[in-house]
Amino acid sequence: MQVFLYLCTIFSSFCMESFIYKDSTVAFVTAAAQTCLLIEQCAEHDREEWREQMLRLLPVLYLRTRLLEPAETMMEEEPQRFVTEEDYTFALVGIRNLLGSDDAYLDVFVDRGVYTDEIQTSYISEGLADIYQELKDLAAAFQTGEEPVMNDAVVLCREAFDQHWGRKLLAVMRALHDLDASMDEL
Fold first, then answer.
1. Largest Cα–Cα distance in the chain?
2. What is the reported pTM?
3. Is the pLDDT reported for residue 7 higher than 70?
4. Domains in the chain, start-ordered, CATH in brackets?
């Protein structure tokens, strides 16, 4: 019995120090999994209900990502990507079908703080499918149960957030907010 208690003490102290078991990481992975689930199940919701749930979840995802503690990769090689083109297309088409003509919104292209006068049409479905791809790869890495794989997946997902999907998340939130506000006026 004493050996068991000793091993539990060692394991719990290891878990407390490991990046993937920190509260901020667990909260981030939970928000990521909830986002993936809501995207995958969009056909089971009506448009207004789904939009409302997204408007509640996306700010949480953004905050949880920003609150991640800094960490380093553990493996030398790039982690495996799990999301297939079919997975991406499933998410994209599901959202596009749910939103219909409300999928498109006007956006101003911004690159590293340089604004242009160029207005382009963007799509909520494309932004969310891009975010889904990053988050689903993370979730799949956690399903392996291998700590180095999980650690590196979180680190790389956070880097991708800084590089591209954080801006997409904010653009999608703004588009969903504008859509929600225009529905309230009706």
1. 71
2. 0.85
3. no
4. 2-185 (1.20.120.1550)
